[in-house]
Structures are given as structure tokens and as C-alpha cells.
Design goal:
The complex is a heterotrimer. Helices cover 76% and strands 0% of the residues of chain A. By secondary structure, chain A is mainly alpha-helical. Chain A has one domain (6-46, 63-281): Orthogonal Bundle (MetI-like fold), CATH 1.10.3720. Chain A is elongated. In chain A, 51% of the residues are buried. In chain B, 75% of the residues lie in helices and 0% in strands. The chains are: A mainly alpha, B mainly alpha, C alpha/beta. Chains in contact: A-B, B-C. At the B-C interface, helix 10 and helix 11 of B face helix 3, helix 4 and helix 7 of C.
């Protein structure tokens, strides 16, 4: 695939579909916020001020203040870094472990394939959020374990994608040719099969990012992982939950809306990537 | 047919086994001393040793595993530190509360999503189609806890239509005599209209929250499947034979289109079980999810383990049930022997 | 035509005149059919032959009213027993389909509902047209039994062995040939006057092909049913059809009795079709393919004769003057300025 046609194709998809352009822009904004957020926020996210507790959105505090008088806008923006980092780390881990496992399973077949498939199926036999709860509960209530748990429950997706690709190409003529030319199996896997499996994996990565953010926020909401006063979207929503019934809606609303926007962005991006790489599967 | 069913049953066994193995490993993966964990933070060294012997934690791992399986077979899931009650008993007592929400949410979601998907497929490009696409894209992005809170704010605080999200029943009422554990059924059986209505009102918000969450995959699958079926050869033959459009739509198109939707339900159940944990926290619902969360916060490990195990087993059995249902409704499956 | 001759000429069952159809698509308007004239008489087997994309299937879908949503009729009439099919409302057409005009398709396995028994599929059609097909009165049970018997009988009529047992079969349990028989049973259950068979033998092996064609033509003869046999296989058309209409790129270019068509084709396209069709006597080397491709029907500058760019006999008139209409009443009609058996323009100029 020459780079010129890929770029041309990407440009075509972007111009053809304004929603995709929107998703790409939103993605860029989130990444930007994650990188520079802590430096540009108006207030210190951890600075409490009891006198100004639970104030509705105003010119001074765009998103209002929470029970401890902290500026919610600053906390929501700063939380971007943590949420995106957790999701990114988890997905990266899944990818780096799952892809080689899946490729090897699909390529070599035999009992190796059976073991890997069985392991993936067993993970999928659980409701994934429940499994994540169990893992974090067992290993300890830390951010690192949130990442690990999210990575584990996402592994099967990458294993399956990689295995499917490797299976299809295992018998291909050019693989045989490469082998005959003296390429070792590892080299074939890394240099030839891996790039071919990349496009569907990229779609999976984007969709998984959204799912990983939701997962991490959900776990934090129920008290696992990130602890207060560290700002993270799930925790922020949890902090505001008790005030919903007394009408202070902003404490939960803004972090929740931000969370939703982030997940939405990654889902749209995933759909766009799918359109670029596999137009047959457009819904 | 019997052979196909038997094969399905056999295929579920490794998953059941896998669930048991993983939950076992999780208990032994605890950093530090598992015995101390189970004994509790305030236990003395003696108590910890006693727990260690009691739970067989001083034995080699394979032997521990066999003891674990033997305990499971007897239904022994350990004791809760905070309440002192057997975990199994507490889980069973709370399971109907969770089930009531899950089942009602599934029915509600299907009642909306399937017609929506069908309408979107039969009128491509129309506003219904756009709405369906919006629902499916937005639905998968919504965090359940957020939706739940929003709904509580709008319908309880702002509009006053829904009752306070504080559990299954307003404290004024006492629960109906237990027959199934599902309040709507039990209240109906007891003939208590006021109680039935009170239970229903408390159920609305949690059920709607969960239904919104699962609308998306069901609607998406129905629409895609229906689109595919409507363009198929046999639908064209049915039309060419002059069959009425309702016959073509329901008897020919929909029945075929629903088959993949049934298999989607398995995945949907997984999402629902996961989201029920969060929903129970938001609405103070006394189900198995909130039981596990409370135990987690108190570092009470046995209930959490029991919860993960039970949900895992339940999920495998649910998927098996769906598999078997599929065998019954699709005649082509017979040839898989 | 004199009064006596007019009285002697039988009224056609289906009389299509000047029929045009286009599709509105995102990449332009496809001028699928133009000025098509076609006649089928009662009991006649008419073959509609042409390459893929020549509009054969599109024409039949339009007759039945099951065209794609993007289709638009641009003109003409299609008279069927006094009713103009192109003007009729959806309800009337739905009543006609399966009862007066039926259609069978290729790939019989996928053309039947995979999760419904074949017996029930036949009953669906019987029940739909019940009022007109004299199902008779009686209780629900008696009616159900009557329906079932008729379905079994329909299976028997298409030479399916052991029809009572096959009644309960699903399509995937039957062979391709049997599925085609079932489709024929469904189509003929209500004794239609016209059967449209769209490539019914494609995908079947040669022996089954012959059996299916024999079945169709046998039943047609028995019931005096007209048949429109759509195919790209000239050999089959030659063997089973009374008359053949040749289509090219949405135009009907030649119509003649089968034997006459093969003996003396008049349209250059017909001649080229024949010389590109293998037959027993010839060799592979003797085959002459038709050069070029079908023109893109989305072009706005389509010439009046759509074969002109591939034709060796094309003259000036062919590119500019509207194509002569196919005379549906003539025995051997051709829509061409320089048909074979007349001099080509170059020769005409030479002989001046």
C-alpha cells in the first residue's frame, strides 16, 4: 500500500464525513488537555476553600465548586491526564501482550493455539467489569492495578484479531516463500504478519480506549483505584453523587459530561478508522 | 438434535472450570498473607494462624484447589467478616433484587430497540434511521452511573415524578412475603396493590438507566441484521409471490433477522451484570453488586470472591441457555453434527 | 392490417410497448431500459436473451412491481389482460403476483426461506390468494387440511418424490435441483397465466438443467401458460423457446421465432452473440467474442443505437437518427438501420 494512496484515502474519508473530522479534532483537543491541562487551569485543583463550597457555575468558577470549595473546572481538566493515561497504558499493555500471543497462536496452531484461545475464552467467560473488580480487589487498590485489570480484560480482543489475521495468512504463498528464503518464524511474524494485522488492530485500539476510560471511571466510581483527592472523572462523579438529590447538579454533571465526550470521541474515531481500513464493514 | 445440545453442554464445561480456576487464583494472588486478609485487619497473630489452618492455606497449592472445589460443591463460599453470615446465604438473599432490575431492563430495552432497529432498516435514510444511529453511537458512550444520576436529578429533584433513589422500597412499606424475591411478582401474589405500585415506582429509574445502556447494541444488531435480510434472495421471492408486506416483514424477514440478535443477547447480559454493580450503588439498591462494593470498602474479601465467582458462573450458564435457545429456534443448527 | 387479419391475430397476454426505465443513483441516472417492445401470447415460450447487464431482469421486476426503490418508469405501457401494469397501484400488483404472474429465480437454495419448511412456504402463497383460488369453505381445521393437501399436490406436480415427507423439509435439506422444483411449485400453485423464469438453471448441473427446463415447458404446455424465459445461454433458448427476443444495453434489438433467429440473425449483435457461443460442431478457435463492453448506461450522451460503438456495420445514421422501433407485430423484427441480409453502409455507398 503506497503512502500516497493511504493519505489520499484518509483525506477522502475526512472530507467525505464531517463527523470524522469532528472526532479527529476532539481527539486532538483531549490530547492537548492531557498534556498541558495542569499548566493552564485557573485554580489549583487541590486547593480547598470552605467558604466557597457548593457554588453553582458562575463567571469565576465555570463549572462551580464542590463540597470542599475546589474549582470543578480545574479538577475536570486536570483529570483528563490521569484518565487518558490510565486508558492508554492499559490499552498499550493489552496490545503489546495480546498481539504477539494472538499472532503466534494463529501462525503456529496446534496446542499453542488451543491454550491461548482457551485462556482468552476464559477471560471472556466473565462479565468483564466484574472480573476487573475481582482483580483489583485481589491485587490491591492502586492505580497500577486498575491499569493491569483493564489490560487483562481487554487482552482477548487483541488475541482474537491477531489470531484471525495470522490464520488467514498462515497458508499464504508468500509466507512459504519467505520461509524458503531463510526467514525464521519470528522474523516472519514480526516483519510480515504484524503489519498486516495492524489495521484491524488499530480500530480495536480506538474502540478499546473508549471502553477502557469507561471501565477505569466505573471502578473509581465504586471506590477502587484512584483515591481522593486525586482528580479523576469517575471519582469526581462519585463525589458529586450525594448532592444530586439535593439539587447541586454541577458537581457530578461536568465530570460526567467530559467523560462521555471522551468516550464518544474515541468511538467515533474507531468508526472512522474502520471506514478507512475496511470500507466493507461500514454500518 | 440431542447430540447438538449435548455438544453445547460439553462446550460450556471448560468455561465453568475456567471461572472456578481464575477465582481461585485471584484469592491466592493477594499480595502479602492471604490468611491475614481473610482474618481481617484487627485479627491477632493467633487468629491469623487459625484462619490459615482452617482455610488450608498452609497446604500445597493443588491440594488447596481441590479443597476449594470441594467447598464449592457443598455451596460453601466462606463467611463475611463484617456480618458474620455465610456468603452464600447473603448472596442468595440479595440476588432477586439484582435480577429484578436486570430482567425488567432487558425486556424494556428489547421492547424499544427491536422495533427501532426494524423501523430504521425498513426506512433507510429517514429520521427514524438517523435516530437509531444516534441512539446506537451515543448509547455506547454513556457511562451508566452518569445516566443514572442525571435521570435521578431530572425526574426526582426537578420534576418530582420519581421517588427518592434510596432502594427497593420507601421505608413506610415492608416487603411482600417472599415467594420469588421479585417484589413485583410477590406483591401481585399477595394482592397488595399499594405495595406493588410502591415497588414499581422505585424500580423505574434503575431499570430505565440500565435499559438505556443496553439499547444500543440490541438496536444496532437488529438494524444491521434486518437490512441484510431485507436485501436477501428469499425476501425477493416472497415479494414476487405476492405475499402481503406484513407477512414478508414478520414471517420472512424478522424471524430470520432476529437470530443474530439472540446471540447478541449473551454479550448484552455481560454488560448488564457489570453495569448493575454501578447502578446498585447509585440507587442504593440492595442487590449483590452493592453487597460486593460494601465488602470491598471494608476489605472483607470472601464476599467479593463469592460475588465474582457467582457472577462468572451465572454468566456462563446464561450464555449456555442462549446457545440452547438458538438450537431450538434455528433448524439449520441440526446439521452441525 | 385489414379487418380480417386483425381479427385473426390473437391478443397478446402481455403487451409491452415503448417501455423505458431509469434508476436514480448517487453516481448518476442509469438509463436501464429504453423503448422496449415485447409481446407474449398465451401458451407461448418466449426467450429473453442478452449479456449480463442488458436489462433482462430489470424488465421483469418492473412488470411485477418489485423494482428497486430507485427505479423510475420513463414511459410506455405494459398491458396485461387489459390492465396497465405500469400504472396499477401497489395493491393490485400484489394481488396479481403469485396468482396471475409468477416469477422464479436463480440460486434456488438462497431464494427460499431457510428457516421455514417448503410445505409451509407453498401454503403461504395459497393462503394469500385463497379468496380467488377457491379454497372452499369449512372449519379452520378443514381449511388447514385442505391447504396442506394442496401443498403436497403442488409438490407432486413438480415431480418431487415422496411429497408428504418432503413437505416437512427445510431448503438446506434439499439439493439445488429440488429447491428449484419447490420454487416452481410455489410459483405455479395458483395456476398463473404467465411465468417469468429468470435464469432458473444457472448454477445447476447439466442434467438437472434439462430436467428443470423439461418440467417448466411441460407444465406450461399442459396449462397453456405463457413463459418468459430469461437467460444468457443461447443454447438453452434455442432448444426450449418458441420465440426469442434479444436485448442489448437496455434495448430490445431483435425478435423472431427461435429457428428463424438462429438461421438468419438480422441484428449484428445477435450474429456476434451466436458466433461467440460454443456449439458441438465448432472449435474453440472458431469462437469470435463480441468486442468491447456494454456502454456505461449512466452517460448522458448515449447514442440512439447503443451497439454503434462495437458495430462493424455502423453508418452515419446510426449515430444520429432515433433507432427504428422493434415492430412487435412483425414475425421477424429488428431494430437496426443496417440489418444483416441487407448491404452494409460501406457497400451501399460503393454500389451507390
Amino acid at each position: 500500500m503506497s503512502s500516497s494512496t493511504t493519505i489520499g484515502h484518509v483525506r477522502h474519508v475526512l472530507s467525505d464525513n464531517p463527523v470524522t473530522l469532528l472526532a479527529a479534532t476532539m481527539f486532538a483537543v483531549f490530547v492537548l488537555l492531557a498534556l498541558v491541562g495542569p499548566f493552564v487551569v485557573p485554580y489549583d485543583p487541590l486547593a480547598s476553600n470552605a467558604a466557597r463550597a457548593l457554588q453553582p457555575p458562575s463567571a469565576e468558577h465555570w463549572f462551580g465548586t464542590d463540597a470542599l470549595g475546589r474549582d470543578i473546572f480545574s479538577r475536570v481538566i486536570v483529570a483528563t491526564r490521569l484518565d487518558l493515561s490510565i486508558a492508554f497504558a492499559a490499552v498499550l499493555m493489552s496490545f503489546l501482550i495480546g498481539m504477539p500471543l494472538g499472532l503466534a497462536a494463529g501462525f503456529f496452531g496446534g496446542w499453542w493455539e488451543r491454550i491461548v484461545t482457551r485462556a482468552a475464552d476464559t477471560v471472556m467467560a466473565f462479565p468483564l467489569f466484574v472480573l476487573a473488580m475481582g482483580i483489583v480487589a485481589a491485587l490491591g487498590n492502586t492505580v497500577g492495578n486498575i491499569v493491569l485489570a483493564t489490560a487483562i480484560i481487554n487482552l482477548p480482543f487483541y488475541i482474537r484479531v491477531a489470531r484471525a489475521e495470522a490464520n488467514v495468512r498462515r497458508g499464504a504463498g508468500w509466507v512459504e516463500a519467505a520461509r524458503l528464503a531463510g526467514n525464521g518464524d519470528a522474523r516472519i511474524l514480526a516483519v510480515h504478519l504484524f503489519p498486516n494485522a495492524l489495521p484491524p488492530a488499530m480500530v480495536q485500539v480506538s474502540l478499546n480506549m473508549g471502553w477502557a476510560i469507561l471501565n477505569a471511571a466505573g471502578l473509581s466510581f465504586i471506590g477502587l483505584g484512584v483515591r481522593p483527592p486525586e482528580p479523576e472523572w469517575g471519582i469526581l462523579v462519585a463525589e458529586g453523587a450525594q448532592f444530586i438529590v439535593s439539587g447541586e447538579w454541577w458537581v457530578s454533571f461536568f465530570p460526567g459530561a467530559m467523560l462521555m465526550l471522551a468516550v464518544f470521541t474515541f468511538n467515533l474515531l474507531g468508526d472512522a478508522l474502520r471506514d478507512i481500513f475496511d470500507p466493507r464493514r461500514r454500518t | 438434535m440431542g447430540r447438538v445440545i449435548a455438544r453445547r453442554l460439553l462446550a460450556a464445561l471448560p468455561n465453568l472450570f475456567g471461572v472456578i480456576v481464575i477465582t481461585f487464583l485471584l484469592t491466592r494472588a493477594i499480595p502479602g498473607d492471604p490468611a491475614a486478609y481473610f482474618a481481617g485487619a484487627s485479627a491477632t497473630q493467633e487468629a491469623v494462624e487459625q484462619v490459615r489452618r482452617q482455610l488450608g492455606l498452609d497446604r500445597p497449592l493443588p491440594e488447596q484447589f481441590l479443597r476449594y472445589v470441594a467447598d464449592l460443591a457443598r455451596g460453601d463460599l466462606g463467611l463475611s467478616l463484617t456480618t458474620g453470615q455465610p456468603v452464600r446465604q447473603e448472596l442468595l438473599a440479595r440476588l432477586p433484587a439484582s435480577l429484578e432490575v436486570v430482567l425488567l431492563a432487558l425486556v424494556l430495552a428489547c421492547a424499544i430497540a427491536i422495533p427501532l432497529g426494524v423501523a430504521a432498516a425498513t426506512r433507510p435514510g429517514s429520521w427514524i434511521d438517523q435516530l437509531a444511529r444516534l441512539v446506537t453511537t451515543a448509547g455506547v458512550s454513556l457511562p451508566t452511573f452518569f445516566t443514572g444520576l442525571l435521570l435521578a436529578y431530572v425526574f426526582y429533584f426537578l420534576l418530582g415524578w420519581a421517588p427518592s433513589p434510596l432502594g427497593r422500597l420507601d421505608p413506610v412499606f415492608s416487603p411482600p412475603p417472599t415467594v420469588t424475591g421479585l417484589y413485583l411478582i410477590d406483591a401481585a401474589l399477595a394482592g397488595d396493590r399499594a405495595l406493588w405500585w410502591a415497588s414499581f415506582k422505585q424500580l423505574v429509574l434503575p431499570v430505565v438507566t440500565m435499559a438505556i445502556f443496553v439499547l444500543a447494541p440490541i438496536a444496532r444488531m437488529t438494524r444491521a441484521s434486518m437490512l441484510s435480510v431485507l436485501g436477501s434472495d428469499f425476501v425477493r421471492t416472497a415479494r414476487a409471490s405476492g405475499l402481503s408486506s406484513s407477512t414478508v416483514l414478520v414471517r420472512y424477514a424478522l424471524r430470520n433477522a432476529l437470530l443474530p440478535v439472540v446471540t447478541t443477547l449473551g454479550m448484552v447480559f455481560g454488560f448488564m451484570i457489570g453495569s448493575s454493580v454501578v447502578i446498585e450503588k447509585v440507587f442504593g439498591w440492595p442487590g449483590v453488586g452493592s453487597y460486593a462494593i460494601d465488602a470491598l470498602t471494608a476489605s472483607d474479601y470472601a464476599p467479593v470472591q463469592g460475588f465474582v465467582l457467582t457472577m462468572g458462573l451465572l454468566f456462563v450458564l446464561l450464555n449456555l441457555a442462549i446457545d440452547l435457545l438458538y438450537v431450538v429456534i434455528d433448524p439449520r443448527v441440526k446439521i452441525e453434527a | 392490417m385489414t379487418g380480417a387479419a386483425a381479427a385473426a391475430a390473437p391478443v397478446p397476454l402481455l403487451d409491452v410497448s415503448d417501455f423505458g426505465l431509469e434508476f436514480r443513483t448517487r453516481s448518476g441516472t442509469v438509463h436501464a431500459l429504453e423503448h422496449v417492445n415485447l409481446r407474449i401470447h398465451k401458451g407461448e415460450v418466449v426467450g429473453l436473451v442478452g449479456e449480463s447487464g442488458s436489462g433482462k431482469s430489470v424488465l421483469s421486476y418492473a412488470m411485477l412491481g418489485i423494482s428497486d426503490a430507485a427505479a423510475r418508469v420513463t414511459g410506455g405501457r405494459a398491458l396485461f389482460g387489459g390492465l396497465d401494469l405500469l400504472q396499477a397501484d401497489a395493491r393490485t400488483l400484489a394481488d396479481l403476483r403469485g396468482r396471475e404472474i409468477s416469477m422464479i429465480f436463480q440460486s434456488p437454495r438462497t431464494a427460499l426461506n431457510p428457516i421455514r419448511t417448503v410445505g409451509l412456504q407453498i401454503e403461504d402463497v395459497l393462503r394469500r390468494h385463497a379468496a380467488r383460488t377457491r379454497l372452499g369453505s369449512g372449519t379452520g381445521v378443514e381449511q388447514a387440511k385442505g391447504l396442506r393437501e394442496r401443498a403436497v399436490q403442488a409438490l407432486r406436480e413438480v415431480a418431487i418424490a415422496d411429497p408428504e415427507r418432503r413437505y416437512h423439509a427445510y431448503p438446506f435439506e434439499l439439493s439445488g435441483g429440488m429447491c428449484q422444483r419447490v420454487m416452481i411449485a410455489i410459483a405455479l400453485a395458483c395456476r398463473p397465466g404467465l411465468l417469468i423464469a429468470d435464469e432458473p438453471t444457472t448454477g445447476l448441473d447439466v442434467t438437472t438443467q434439462a430436467a428443470v427446463m423439461d418440467l417448466i415447458t411441460g407444465l406450461a404446455r399442459e396449462r397453456q401458460m405463457a413463459t418468459l424465459f430469461i437467460t444468457h445461454d443461447l443454447g438453452l433458448a434455442a432448444e426450449y423457446c418458441d420465440r426469442i427476443v434479444v436485448m442489448h444495453a437496455g434495448h430490445a434489438v431483435e425478435a423472431a421465432p427461435a429457428r428463424a433467429l438462429f438461421a438468419t440473425p438480422r441484428h449484428p449483435y445477435t450474429a456476434r452473440l451466436m458466433s461467440s457461443t460454443p456449439d458441438r460442431q465448432g472449435t474453440l478457435a472458431a469462437l469470435v467474442p463480441v468486442p468491447g463492453n456494454l456502454p456505461d448506461l449512466r452517460r448522458t450522451d448515449l447514442p440512439p443505437c447503443r451497439f454503434v460503438e462495437r458495430c462493424t456495420r455502423a453508418g452515419e445514421r446510426c449515430r444520429t437518427a432515433p433507432l427504428p422501433r422493434l415492430d412487435a407485430q412483425a414475425a421477424h423484427a429488428v431494430a437496426c438501420w443496417h440489418p444483416l441480409a441487407t448491404p452494409a453502409p460501406a457497400e451501399a455507398a460503393h454500389h451507390g
